[in-house]
Structure formats: structure tokens, C-alpha cells
Specification:
Blueprint lengths: L2 H18 L24 H15 L24 H6 L1 H14 L12 H15 L2
Helix pairs in contact: 2-5, 4-5
């Protein structure tokens, strides 16, 4: 057996083992790649649907792709709850704004009153299970 083949056979497991860790999860055990969205719980379809509905009713008045100017009330142009790509791309920011902004009236986020913890958790589940995929 040629030396080159022997070296390849000897070092291949080490190379494969080293590459196995590249680009993977950071060990946080979260289904969304280590993000602040957390885990997608099993059997969460109903809760995720509730979260989706909450996003549509609570956030849509200002965060629609068709909203312009004063109807956006200062909402960023790149966060639109009727655009799945936007929700996916901005999922962590959306959750953070709901958690912080909703609690305080936020920086330009006029929810008016804090969303319930159950509603916030339902939105988190939707973002972790559906939007972050």
C-alpha cells in the first residue's frame, strides 16, 4: 500500500472530526442555531399558530409591507409581518422589541400596553419553530 494512501487513511478520521464542528451549533442546544429565540418545543403547532395570529393582529397596523409614511408610525421598513422573509430575517429583533419595547412602550413601539407573557411566549414559539426555519 502506498505511503500516501496510508497517510490518508490514518488522518482522515481526524480531518473529518475537526470539520464536524465547523459551522455547527454553538452547543446551546437551541433549534434556531443558538439564537435568543430558544427551542422549538415539541407539539407546539397550536401555540405557534397563536403566536402567528398575535403578530398579525398586534404588529400589522405598523409593520405591513404596504404601510408607508405616517401609517408606519416610525416602524423600520425592513420589518414586515406580512412578509415571511422579513419575519425570518428579523425574528430575533422582533422578539427583543416585543419583550423590551412592549414592556416599556419601547423606543417608538406604541403597543399601548404590554402583551401578556403567554402571548409573548406564543410569538417566541412561532418565531423559533416556523419563522427561523
Amino acid at each position: 500500500m502506498p505511503v500516501r494512501t496510508m497517510l490518508l487513511l490514518c488522518f482522515a478520521p481526524f480531518v473529518i472530526g475537526a470539520l464536524h464542528g465547523c459551522g455547527g451549533d454553538d452547543g446551546g442546544g437551541e433549534t434556531s442555531g443558538g439564537s435568543s429565540l430558544g427551542d422549538c418545543p415539541p407539539d407546539s403547532a397550536a401555540q405557534a399558530d397563536t403566536g402567528y395570529q398575535a403578530l398579525q393582529t398586534q404588529c400589522a397596523p405598523c409593520h405591513l409591507s404596504t404601510s408607508e409614511g405616517a401609517t408606519r408610525i416610525g416602524a423600520p421598513d425592513d420589518v414586515n409581518v406580512d412578509d415571511p422573509a422579513s419575519v425570518t430575517a428579523e425574528a430575533e429583533e422582533i422578539l427583543e422589541e416585543i419583550r423590551i419595547g412592549g414592556a416599556n412602550g419601547g423606543d417608538g413601539m406604541p403597543i399601548g400596553s404590554k402583551l401578556s407573557d403567554d402571548t409573548i411566549e406564543a410569538i417566541r414559539v412561532f418565531l423559533a419553530c416556523d419563522a427561523a426555519q
